[in-house]
Amino acid sequence: MRGLFEKDIRIIKNQKKMMLIFAGMGVLLLLSGVEISFILPYMASVMTSVAISTISYDSMDNGNSFLFTLPVRRKDYATEKYFFVCGFGAVSALIVAIACGILLLVRKSEMTAGVLGVETMICLLIVLLLADLLVPLQIKFGAEKSKIVILATVGILVLGFEIMKNLDQYMQGISSWGRNLWQIISSYKILFGIAGILLVALLTFISWTISCRVLEKQEM
Q: Which residue, 89, 98, 111, is CA-closest to 37?
């Protein structure tokens, strides 16, 4: 599996220009005054999509046909992809969060470190959800057919993040039972947080199982 990690790292290194463009875009967003609550999930989603694109590079010029003639099991390939995609996305999210933290100190913003930490944790969950959804799609359909799904998913996740951020405000305009439900959720944040982590872990296992089955059925 170490060789698979090295292969993917080299693929990312060969995309230096694209990475510089994304980095420059992130810097411009930070300096332009765009809300950090948008920058964090957006950049995390973009960088996760970059990591997922390594699956497309593997399939180019019958690359997978050669890859699986080596002592590489298809389950190992799927496992490595989840670790690499989640790891790359998580590291990228943490780097962006650190840059945002430095910017907050310079600007003396009212946003606290606690709020930034919560938003960073949510970004890490977004990275996991993106990997769970897009890795099997990329393996199944390839780069061309899954592009639309990837773009739509990133948009939905960013929109969902904004809705969750302002959910307390939205609840004020709903009926009393909605407000009571939100108060119950707020009172047991830790329990709901643990339940959310367990749910994401279950989704990751299901996604990994699907990816393994798709790979086993593919003819290389």
A: 111
